[in-house]
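Batch job 17 of 40 flagged for manual review because the log was empty.
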Amino acid sequence: MDQEICYLGKIGQIQVIRRIKLKKEVSREERYSRQLLLKEWDQEKLENSCVLVVGLGALGSVVALNLAMMGVGKLILVDFDTVELSNLSKQLLYREEDIGKPKVEIAAKRLHEINSEIKVVALNKDVRKISKSYFEESHVVVDGLDTFEVRRWLNSMCVDLAKPLVHGGFYGWYGNVQVVIPFKTACLECQPLIPPEKLQKMCTPPGNIRKRLRPENEEKIPTVASIATVIGGIQSQEVLKILLGIPNILENYVFYDGISQTLTKLRLEKNPECVVCSDKYRIKGVEYILEKQETIRQLKNRLIMSYGLSDPDIIVRDKMILDENTKISDLGLKTGDLIFVNDERLAKPLKLKVKIM
């Protein structure tokens, strides 16, 4: 069971006191009067929507704030980092007195102060450890992560559950946005625009993980609050379009150059061989050549190189192969058989249709 902190509108004692002080309830029409002027707007639809925001850093906090102000009924916030002094120059939900406190708890509290009509759930956990039910109840998932490994896992989970994913990333003066509509548009795994090495580095992993994952002298990622605001704003707009059913959802990879103030759109095509979202993979599995004399360890190394995995586990006939010295010839496999590969960077196992050589 996930431990969650909920901030619920209209029912808490603090909210009752606040409403007494206001002397009258602010109506929905008054709060949202300017956005209600838009012919495409449906406030009731927003109020009945749920958005999962993964990562409450520079991008996630911008998106969460925009959605809260516009009245999205429920926000689920996921992050297991704490507020640091360096966050204050680019993450707008935090203050000096918040340093050392969990980001999601502070973010949820602040968002509910901004709009007491919405429900905010704070999950101070690694997104890979939360219940799948949070994904299932959400209408859109927002990627505000700063690690490409977890982002790939999130992409895999969203495709598996057919949940739209709005991805954003930035580095210095540059940023990018991509919307993944499962089985309709290219996912993060099948598109060819894998971020440059610098975009794949972590910003600041929390706690003791930081020292283990990065040396002290490793270059840190440059970030600018204004770029995060632009990219987070574009992400917010795409989320809004999905929730309201407005057409022209972004189908391109958008690259933003903050120096020249230009937006470049690159057309993305689905990869028919993608191991996450292709029909071929889901139905038959992707063909993968195995050599009879190679060991499980050698196979793992090839899979790491082929698919950018971390530390894969090989499953044959529902059994995990623990002895890495085992040879393929010892497994009794034949061409056309299926094997499955588990890895922390994927939400579900890879299904490989083997060809024995």
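Reviewer: the log was empty due to a logging misconfiguration, but the result itself is present. Residues 5-267 form a domain with the Rossmann fold fold (CATH 3.40.50.720). Unflagging and moving on to job 18.
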